[in-house]
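Let's sit down with a protein and look at its sequence and fold side by side. Go ahead whenever you are ready, and we will take it from there.
>
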Amino acid sequence: MHKDTHETGTNPGYETRDVSGGPVFWALTTLAVITVLSAIIVFGFFAYLKAQPSTPVEPLPMALERALPPTPRLQANPPLDLEAYNAAMTKKVNSYGWVDQAAGVAHIPVDVALEIVAKKGLPSGIESHHPKPKQEPALQAPGGVTPPAGAAP
């Protein structure tokens, strides 16, 4: 039996028993052998598969039908697409053209439209898009008489 340092009261400050090297050596050796054997088996299996003749496999009918991904799809060159879009919009904003020829609706350049609005003002139909503020009902004095505008109630 080994001597317990707690019973004698002396404490050397380190482990007094050593680990036996035999079991550690055999555990590491076994681990190394298993690793090498696993590598040999895997490389042998890959060599076997590589040596096998490859037979073409016909794809399933569903794989032949190409389904497009849902929109929006990725752009091949977004900066070029943005440049083309901006050029088209600039051309449209600065040109004359039909919006609906059957109804007689056309578009004009923005600069021309601004000059027209500056000279003539907004057409009367434009106000319908902007609601007018609610007017309060007129105040009536006792007796049903309406006071004049600007008079104190």
